[in-house]
Amino acid sequence: MRLLAGWSQARLASELGYHHSVISRWETGDRNPPLHQLGRIDEVLRTGGRLTELYRAAGEDRCADPWPYAPPSASSHAPGGDSVLPLSEGSWPARLPHHGVACPSHGTDGCAVPSPERAESLWRAFTANPSSVVSEDVIHMLAAYLAVEVRRTEIPNSVSGGPTVEEAMRLITGGWHESGDRPNQSLTRLTAGYASLCGQLRMLRGQPAAAMAFYERGLRWALRCDDTALKATILCDMNALARFEHDGASAVGHARALLSFAGDISWVRSLACLHLARGYAILGDARETVRLVARSRAALEDSATNCGPRPDWITGDQGRAWVEAGIGGALRDASVTRADRGLAREALDATERSKSLVPVGQRPAAVLLGLRLADCHACAGRPDTAAYLASPLLAEALTATRTTVSHELRGLLGRLAPHQPHLTSAHALSIPP
């Protein structure tokens, strides 16, 4: 359609406010354009609404299968196969919720989960015949395993069971295809949670296109079961992925989607405003960034008096640490795009507040915020202080598995390079992709 209209990728990108590489990703299928842009593209290219029509026609197919690739046949799994749950000693929970993962059936009310021995037996039976009726025990087993793997992503240098997570995802969706049944709410919620984790694991492996495919399908399942926490988690991750690729326009689009269902839920409004601020910071709109930062803080304070259910990571001191860390990142990014040292100092204050709230033992968060503190000093015109703060963290940061840490380190070293070449030259080549 673009070629028929005589438009180049660069021209269309400029008209829509994107980088030309984003248009390329849309056309190759690595990414889908944000829903709010479809009508605009139709208008610009004068397609008569054809693009929106095609997207809607494909909508049922997209909603039918959250798996980015062809689901496997259940018959391809031999009964009594040798697939096992990769459980380390002491990692299996006794109850749900566990580490932010609630029971898909009982929610935050809580429930007991099968013992590790029983879980292994249930896993073998499930992998042998995933198209059979999924019992409550199987749902509890799969939810507990999801919680174990979510926890594993937060342990420094731990070995993730990523292949088994994706196997579980394939089996759940493949079983539905064979049985022809529509998934109930519990399975829909469980599937959305697995898709979200699969996206995070793909990001950790440096595979953003595959990560986005999982996020998009996970979001569709979260929308179907109307799970607010899952919708918020996935859209926040999609926003982060766009920011890692310096795609501020897509980051803003994902944050607007988050704001669209926030309603009177204060913690969702806080997250939406925060992620809007982060997107606008990349776009260089410092005024809008500062305005949204204030709105995010106000909404978070408002949520303190609202005792409704919410994820653990946005509750109490943990929630304040999370929001202040994001605010520090937004203000730092705005200081970079606008070369504004005043914004860098505000970013430093927010990052210090966040770091003071991080519990002892959460080393990945401490390393990330330590690097950001150093970067804020670099952006504020204090490269020597930045180098002094960063030096003790470099070895640990270079071996970190988190994409966020690698991204933070790359930006810091790039800004220190003109001032501290002896510090940055050797380390820059060792940063994970």
UniProtKB/TrEMBL annotation:
PROSITE patterns: HTH_CROC1
Low complexity: compositionally biased ranges: 72-83
Gene3D superfamilies: lambda repressor-like DNA-binding domains
Domain HTH cro/C1-type, residue spans: 1-54
GO function terms (MF aspect): DNA binding
Domain of life, source organism: Bacteria
Chain intervals for the UniProt region annotation (Disordered): 68-90
UniProt-listed Pfam families: HTH_3
Stretches that traverse the bilayer: none
Protein name: HTH cro/C1-type domain-containing protein
Organism: Streptomyces toyocaensis
